[in-house]
């Protein structure tokens, strides 16, 4: 279960933003929409434990992450939260499968070759398992980003503007892939974006943020 309560963040320059409460169960999918500068990425970073909330609580799998210290948060994130950033982050000196194995080990788990091959097969990039990420196309790198985020079977999958600069066809392909993988993995999915094209893919599961005054 994912739940936020009275969540606020104060920026270094002093402005404070408040976020609406929401709650999700395993497999739920939520689209967070809003214009640039409304705090979408800030909210994603709060949910991912990359920023500390100034006030309020974020509960993930019955754990209030606002109470965790830095090292505790890093370990919890590795085991419970997957994040897909706008730009892929890979170790360029490692192969595709080595990147995934490293992500497993970094979270305190043993490398699981079966899990790695399973995800790469589901995402249609198993042929690249022994290649370096820079040898892949941009679309394939995006799929590897999804694999990296899902490798440790997180309770929560976060995606930051995953359709930025994509045309309609590719945008909906990416969103449907994320939704499909979240369903298969029984993972809660939160997508933050300014891309209003995606409304039709989420129907009533939409949270709209307003511009910061």
Describe the structure.
Strands 1, 2, 3, 5 and 6 form a five-stranded antiparallel sheet that branches. A five-stranded parallel sheet has the order 7-8-9-4-10, sandwiched between helices. The radius of gyration is 17 Å and the shape is globular. It is α/β, with parallel strands linked by helices. It has helices at residues 40-47, 70-80, 96-106, 113-122, 138-150, 168-185, 199-202; strands spanning 2-10, 16-18, 22-24, 29-33, 55-60, 63-64, 81-84, 156-160, 188-193, 206-208. It has one domain (2-208): Rossmann fold, CATH 3.40.50. The model has no long low-confidence stretch (mean pLDDT 92). Helix content is 35%, strand content 22%.
Layout of secondary structure:
Elements: E1 2-10, E2 16-18, E3 22-24, E4 29-33, H1 40-47, E5 55-60, E6 63-64, H2 70-80, E7 81-84, H3 96-106, H4 113-122, H5 138-150, E8 156-160, H6 168-185, E9 188-193, H7 199-202, E10 206-208
Parallel strand pairs: 4-9, 4-10, 7-8, 8-9
Antiparallel strand pairs: 1-2, 1-3, 1-5, 5-6
């Amino acid at each position: 279960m994912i739940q936020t309560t009275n969540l606020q963040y104060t920026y270094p320059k002093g402005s404070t933003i408040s976020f609406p409460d929401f709650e999700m169960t395993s497999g739920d999918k939520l689209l967070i929409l809003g214009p640039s500068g409304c705090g979408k990425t800030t909210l994603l970073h709060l949910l991912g434990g990359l920023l500390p909330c100034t006030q309020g609580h974020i509960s993930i799998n019955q754990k209030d992450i606002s109470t965790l210290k830095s090292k505790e948060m890093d370990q919890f994130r590795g085991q419970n939260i997957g994040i897909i950033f706008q730009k892929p982050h890979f170790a360029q000196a490692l192969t595709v499968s080595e990147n995934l194995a490293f992500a497993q080990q970094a979270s305190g788990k043993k490398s699981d070759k079966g899990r790695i091959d399973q995800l790469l097969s589901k995402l249609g990039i198993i042929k690249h398992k022994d290649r370096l990420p820079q040898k892949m196309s941009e679309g394939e790198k995006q799929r590897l980003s999804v694999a990296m985020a899902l490798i440790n079977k997180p309770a929560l999958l976060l995606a930051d503007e995953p359709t930025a600069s994509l045309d309609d066809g590719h945008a909906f392909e990416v969103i449907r892939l994320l939704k499909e993988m979240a369903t298969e993995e029984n993972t809660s999915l939160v997508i933050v974006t300014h891309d209003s094209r995606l409304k039709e893919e989420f129907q009533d599961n939409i949270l709209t943020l307003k511009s910061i005054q």
